[in-house]
């Protein structure tokens, strides 16, 4: 198995993306620590993992609270013996569906400040343990790319670009300590869209229409790609992006 005896923390592990990644990590042998602000979604994912023979634990956590993040990372490392993988896929509170000229500045900036804050805090907490181990992987997730006409994403693209800048800086600083930092780039995952989202089918169609393969990545494919990126099979991959956009995002 790709991640046998690895310990992984997934912030936002109760969501669609986080849950898919957690299940894939567990299938590949990792012990998964799910963290988020709502216990029931976390426990649902954990129950699924345990039912299939995997190891999963849940914890209530606000990933924008530095002390809480540090305490949780310390507990994971003390309990499991190491912290090998960290991935943050919490929601950023973005407002979509409005052109920028009709937005409040607070709504535009919220996902940017949240993304930067939480990525900084969770990456810092993980890196402090990984530096002692001389190994580890920090994964980011985003859809950084050119905005599409008619698809109003508010501050989301700006947030993704900020996270990419942080990923490059982290990779440079942490590389000498044996720590890899990789981003999974997606042009959107239709399965992850909220069922009650206004215009959900139109958004899903726009995601598919932007691809070269005429289909978007599935949640299972996201999980599989994350498991590969976190594994020793990708041991030479850092300061890099793994493009899982089905061609929607051209490599730069």
From TrEMBL:
- InterPro entries annotated for this entry? NAD(P)-bd_dom_sf, SDR_DHRS6-like, SDR_fam
Q: Which CDD domains match?
A: SDR_c
Any one Pfam family here would be adh_short_C2
Question: So which domain of life are we looking at?
Answer: Bacteria
Look up keyword Oxidoreductase and say if it applies: yes
Q: Does the keyword Oxidoreductase apply?
A: yes
Q: Which SUPFAM superfamilies match?
A: NAD(P)-binding Rossmann-fold domains
Which GO molecular function annotations are given, in alphabetical order? oxidoreductase activity
Give UniProt keywords alphabetically: Oxidoreductase
Record family assignment: Belongs to the short-chain dehydrogenases/reductases (SDR) family.
Can you say what this protein is called? SDR family oxidoreductase
């Amino acid at each position: 198995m790709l991640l046998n005896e690895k310990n992984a923390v997934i912030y936002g592990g109760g969501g669609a993306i986080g849950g898919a990644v957690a299940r894939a990590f567990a299938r590949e042998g990792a012990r998964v620590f799910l963290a988020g602000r709502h216990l029931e979604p976390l426990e649902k994912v954990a129950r699924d993992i345990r039912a299939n023979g995997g190891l999963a634990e849940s914890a209530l956590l606000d990933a924008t609270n530095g002390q809480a993040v540090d305490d949780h990372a310390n507990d994971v490392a003390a309990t499991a013996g190491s912290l090998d993988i960290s991935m943050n896929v919490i929601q950023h509170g973005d407002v979509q569906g409005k052109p920028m000229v009709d937005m409040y500045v607070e709504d535009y900036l919220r996902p940017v400040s949240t993304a930067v804050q939480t990525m900084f805090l969770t990456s810092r907490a993980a890196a402090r343990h990984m530096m002692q181990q001389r190994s580890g992987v920090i994964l980011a997730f985003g859809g950084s790319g050119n905005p599409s006409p008619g698809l109003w994403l508010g501050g989301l693209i700006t947030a993704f670009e900020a996270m990419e800048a942080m990923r490059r800086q982290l990779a440079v600083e942490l590389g000498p300590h044996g720590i890899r930092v990789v981003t999974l780039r997606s042009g959107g995952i239709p399965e992850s869209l909220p069922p009650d989202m206004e215009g959900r089918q139109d958004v899903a169609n726009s995601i598919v229409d932007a691809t070269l393969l005429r289909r978007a990545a599935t949640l299972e494919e996201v999980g599989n790609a994350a498991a590969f990126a976190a594994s020793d099979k990708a041991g030479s991959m850092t300061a890099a992006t793994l493009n899982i956009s089905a061609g929607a995002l051209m490599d730069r």
